[in-house]
Structures are given as C-alpha cells and as structure tokens.
Amino acid sequence: MPPAFKFEECSGPDLVHTFETRIWRWHGRCDLCHVEGAPLSTVGEPPPWMVYAYAEGAAETTYNNIVAAGYIDETCPLQSLMLLKPLDESLGGIEHGGGSKFHDLEGDEGYSDWLFFLRKYAKCHGYEGEPGTTLEGSCF
Asked: Total domain count for the chain?
C-alpha cells in the first residue's frame, strides 16, 4: 500500500505524485489498449490517453491527458469516467470495450487507490462534500 497523503496537499506536483503512487502503479490494467501502438490498441477504438510506461514523465503525461480529456468529474468524483469505465457493470460501472478491471468494491486495492485519488483531486478542486462509500446516493 502506498503511503497516505493528506487531502490538504493540493499543489500540482503533489497531485501528480499522488496519481503516480496511487494510479500509475496499476498501469498494467490499461496499457495494452490505451497506449498508442500497444498490442490491443487497434481492437475497437480505445482512446490512447496513456503513454508508454517507461517513457520519461509517463505518469505525469498520462495524468495530464486524463484531466484534459475530462475523465475526472470534479463535482461528483464517483461518477468519473476514470472510475466507471473499468468498474464491473454489475457494481455500477458502464460499458468498457476492454472488459471490467474492478470486480470488487471492498477487496480490490486498485479500486481503493482510484477512489483515494479521485476524492483528493475533487477536494483540491473545491468539492465541499463529505466522503461517501457507495456509488449510489453520494457524489463523493
């Protein structure tokens, strides 16, 4: 488990660092399809929002791509495409051409990392709500 970070630490470099330690370490769940030229990048039309994992600045560039593409919902983080696309549809996710990546809301460490990052990102961008634990009935 990566080290805990305080939501109050909201500088650009801190958000990138949180992305790198909480999200980027799971890049293997996404990079076969979402890196341009990757083995499955031509199956369907997966958007190439990632860069090659070992490229200089890969995590920061991918973070910037995700933000620019609008995959994070600052007003309702649990409704972010970044979370809903890989989440199993039976758990509240939406259709994802590459199949579900999160199959368990309680025991998947990757899912927990995604939630932490999205909550922090939203708080750093002015979201005033209280953290929630479910997808239904809470925007945070």
From this structure: 1
Answer yes or no: is 61 within a domain: yes
CA distance 4 to 6: 7
Stated pTM of the model: 0.84
Condensed to tens digits (0 to 9), the pLDDT of residues 67-92 reads: 999 999 888 888 999 999 999 999 99
Residue 6: inside a domain: no
1 is a domain residue: no
**Residues 122 and 79 sit within 8 Å (Cβ to Cβ):** no
Q: What is the span of the domain harbouring residue 43? A: 12-124
For residues 120 and 12, the answer to whether their CB atoms sit within 8 Å is: no
pLDDT tens sequence across 100-130? 999 999 999 999 999 999 989 988 888 776 5
